[in-house]
Amino acid sequence: MITTNKMNLPQSFVNFVSTARHNEPGTLSATTLLKGDKEIILSDRHFDNMTQDASELVWASFGTAFHLLMEKQDDDSFKEEKFEVDVDGWKVTGRVDRYDMENEVLEDWKTASVWKVMFQSFDDWKAQGLTYAWLMRQSGLNVKRCRFVAMLKDHSKTDAKRKADYPQAPVYIYDFPVTDKDLEETEQRIKAKIKSITDNYKLDDNLIMPCSKSERWADGEEFAVMKTGRKTAVKVFKEKDDPDAKKHAEAYAEELGISHYVEYRPAISRKCADYCPCKEFCNFYHDSVENQQ
Predict the structure, then answer these.
(1) Same domain? 112 vs 227
(2) d(CA 195, CA 189)
(3) pLDDT tens per residue, range 8-50
């Protein structure tokens, strides 16, 4: 990975945020398993030629610094412990931030945006926590709960006072119990993902299927009912609110009359545009996303 320095930041900061390979050959981390096959494989194949700018890694550096600080705290737990399990020719790995041995609680520290809390968008954290719990179970350690402690980097005291649904503090805790059924389903998910990755590694870059909508952070498609001569939509039907949005939009346009028609608005793949490290090597990005920006 090539780290550029467009804003001429101190070299010490550039060195701090420069990224080494996350996965050693033949390994897949718990967080890597949450990504799309195409991103995983392209990032591996093209890692040495991918670029990132140091200025884009400021918040990531805050997360790293926070982890280093918490590691130094002395309490009755172990921290930053790595677990590794062989699964179908791969090593699945996970580094646990903290494990409370007495209460059997796994903790993970995060930096996050307030929007993650407001939208209650925690599916990725839950999958990550359950993967850690599954890895620990293979080593004979039981996890009763997963607990994520998030520092909200963009928290506003003013908004907290004005908005009822706004996080009331710059720290938020998301936790959930871990059941045997959860761990059984997690094992099935891990094995299915590994099979998919293994199969896709046999394909050329452009033949690997694009990441899923959720993996691309793609907002749902919209179907706008338009009127000839009018610039704004009469009504917009959103797929995320209505699985039959297209059908309902077409029926509504027909009901309104001949001067009305349906305009398709594709989903915006926000990760592809702003956060995917390997987009320059991805044909889906160039064919379907680049022109939407």
Answers:
(1) no
(2) 10
(3) 999 998 888 887 778 888 999 999 999 999 999 999 999 999 9
Q: Mark whether 275 and 193 lie in a shared domain.
A: no
pLDDT digits (tens, 9 = 90+) for 255-267: 999 899 999 988 7
The phi, psi pair for 103, rounded to 5°, reads -100, -5
DSSP, residue by residue, 149-177? EEEETT--HHHHHH-TTS-SSSEEEEEEE
In whole angstroms, give the CA distance from residue 4 to residue 50. Answer: 11
Domain's final residue, options 164, 183, 207: 207
Count of H-run helices and E-run strands, the chain:
10, 11
Alpha-carbon span 20 to 64, nearest angstrom: 14
**Are 87 and 194 a contacting pair, CB within 8 Å?**
yes
- The token pair that represents 21 in the structure block: 């390979």
Q: Is residue 40 within 8 Å of residue 197, measured between CB atoms?
A: yes
What sign does the CA torsion over 46, 48, 65, 136 have?
Answer: positive
- The predicted pLDDT at position 76 comes to 67
User: Residue 27 forms beta bridges with which residues?
Assistant: 91
Tokens of residue 72, six digits = 């130094």
Tokens of 185: 């389903």
Q: Report the distance separating Cα 278 and Cα 291, nearest Å.
A: 17
Distance of alpha carbon 220 from alpha carbon 124, whole angstroms: 18
DSSP 293: -
Establish if 213 belongs to a structural domain: no
**pLDDT at residue 251 greater than cutoff 70:** yes
In a domain, 217, yes or no: no
Report d(CA 28, CA 24) in Å as an integer.
8
Range of the domain at 265: 222-292
Amino acid at 190: I
Taking the C-alpha atoms of residue 227 and residue 259, their distance in angstroms, rounded to an integer, is: 6
The closest of 91, 1, 35, 40 to 201, measured between CA atoms, is: 40
